[in-house]
Amino acid sequence: MHRFLKTDWLYWAATVPLLAGGLYWKPAGIYLAMGLCAIQIAHFGLLSRSPVSFPVQVRGTYVAMLAAGLWPPLAVLHWIQLIGTSTRVMTGYCLLARLLSLFPWNRNEKLSVRLLSRRLFQRDHAGHTACTQFGCASGR
User: Fold this and answer.
1) What number of CA atoms fall less than 13 Å from residue 109's CA on the CB side?
2) What is the pLDDT of residues 71-121, one digit of tens each?
3) Residues 6 or more apart from 1 whose CB is under 8 A from it?
């Protein structure tokens, strides 16, 4: 396994129990998850040598969602993140990365139904999901 992919998976795998703990037991788990995400942002920013690389965008968006979920009307975001992060860890499918890959600065082709379908549903040739294909873990 490529070292970036292993590191990426380990970070997300560590995030799941922190987030679950924050939802089920102690709210401090949410803050610990935010801290781990901040470490990831720094780590992948240094690896990619860019503060706006795709891995940094994914993690920055994730931590922003964690922060937004602290406001009680948006608390459901944490449950969505727990489901999404657990799915990412178990299957490699990262909906957040796939959606971010559709933003204009992350694509080279015109937005279309075909592109949307390809980014959301297609696996790449190596059998990895779009999170890998679009640079979530590659350090790009």
Assistant:
1) 7
2) 999 999 999 999 999 999 999 899 999 999 999 999 889 999 999 999 998
3) none
Domain ranges of the chain: 3-133
Distance CA 130, CA 117 (A): 12
Share of the chain above pLDDT 90, in %: 69
**Contact between 43 and 56 (Cβ < 8 Å):** no
- Say whether pLDDT at 41 is over 60: yes
Using DSSP's 3-state secondary structure scheme, residue 67 falls into helix
Nearest-angstrom CA–CA distance, 103 and 119: 11
Residues 66 and 10 sit within 8 Å (Cβ to Cβ): no
Q: From CA 46, how far away is CA 44, in angstroms rounded?
A: 5
pTM attached to this predicted model: 0.83
The distance in angstroms from the start CA to the end CA of the chain is: 17
- Residues 70 and 62: their CA atoms lie apart, in Å, by 13
116: left (phi over 0), alpha (psi -120 to 50) or beta: alpha
